[in-house]
Each structure stands twice: as structure tokens, then as C-alpha cells.
Design goal:
Layout (H helix, E strand, L loop, with lengths): L33 E4 L6 E2 L6 E4 L12 E2 L4 E2 L2 E6 L2 E6 L8 E6 L15 E7 L33
Parallel strand pairs: 2-9
Antiparallel strand pairs: 1-3, 3-7, 4-5, 4-8, 6-7, 8-9
Length: 160
């Protein structure tokens, strides 16, 4: 009977896919940056519009906060979807006429690779009012007499 030697397998503490930083510590994950939104900040939108938000890498939408209607003070029911590095909020129903939407992305928002958002981002939109008939659609969320899309801060009546 011949003797066979068993090979011992080595389990390395270092995995080849792991990148090490100074002093052998794991390198930090690069931060995620906000790139743009499909609709400019402070724009007046239709209730059926769905603003989307682009980042420089794929976001983890599970870490995204729910947008808020500043008029009612409540969260807008719905869910986030992501395609590549672009996130879109899909409300359960169309946005209410006259709503003032706030999409806030704090630095606790994460990329799918675990990197955090590099800076706080806030995008605000006014939803065109019902009004019926002869046009108009003048949205003045803060009552200062300046149309929201022309107002430096459409939610603060002291700033025009």
C-alpha cells in the first residue's frame, strides 16, 4: 500500500480582489458624486413627470429617503427604481396639483459599492396647479408674489 501525502490548503487573509491602502489596511471606498437631474432644480412640473437623478456610479436606492410634499408636510408614497447610475422616484399616484416636492439626498445615501454620497443634494419642484380653462399655472408656493421657477427660494417668502 502506498502512502499518499495530503496537501494542506492555505486560507489567506488577503483576497486578491481586495485593495489595500497604507499600512495594509483596506483602502477606503471612493465616494459617490451627484451628476445631474433630468429636470432642473426649482422647475414647475406636471403631476405625471418623474424627475430622475444621475450619479457617477450605481446608487443603492434602499438608502434613499422618500421625497416630501412641503405643502402637506408628508412623505410622497411610492418607490425608487434604478437603471445603471440613474435613480427615479415612482410615486404611487401622480403628484398632486400645487404640491411642492423636495428630493433630499443626504451623505448617508450609499452607492451599491458602499461609498457614501460626497455632498448633500436637494432638488425642489412645484407641481403645476389644476386651474382649468385659460392657462395660468402660476405657482407661488411661499406666497411672496414671485413665480416659483423665478424665485431664488420658492419655499421662503423672505427670499425672492
Amino acid at each position: 500500500m502506498s502512502k499518499q501525502k495530503k496537501r494542506k490548503s492555505h486560507s489567506a487573509a488577503f483576497h486578491h480582489s481586495q485593495v489595500l491602502g497604507p499600512l495594509g489596511a483596506p483602502a477606503p471606498i471612493p465616494a459617490m458624486a451627484f451628476v445631474s437631474s433630468s429636470i432642473p432644480d426649482l422647475a414647475t412640473i406636471a403631476g405625471t413627470d418623474r424627475p430622475s437623478f444621475a450619479f457617477d456610479k450605481a446608487p443603492n436606492v434602499a438608502t434613499f429617503p422618500t421625497p416630501t410634499d412641503l405643502v402637506s408636510g408628508s412623505a410622497v408614497p411610492g418607490s425608487w427604481s434604478v437603471a445603471g447610475s440613474v435613480a427615479t422616484y415612482n410615486p404611487s399616484t401622480d403628484y398632486a396639483p400645487g404640491a411642492a416636492l423636495s428630493f433630499q439626498f443626504p451623505t448617508t445615501v450609499l452607492a451599491q459599492d458602499g461609498g457614501s454620497l460626497s455632498a448633500f443634494v436637494n432638488r425642489n419642484y412645484s407641481v403645476a396647479g389644476g386651474g382649468g380653462g385659460g392657462g395660468g399655472g402660476f405657482i407661488d408656493s411661499d406666497g411672496d408674489g414671485v413665480e416659483d421657477h423665478l424665485d431664488a427660494d420658492p419655499f421662503d417668502p423672505s427670499i425672492q
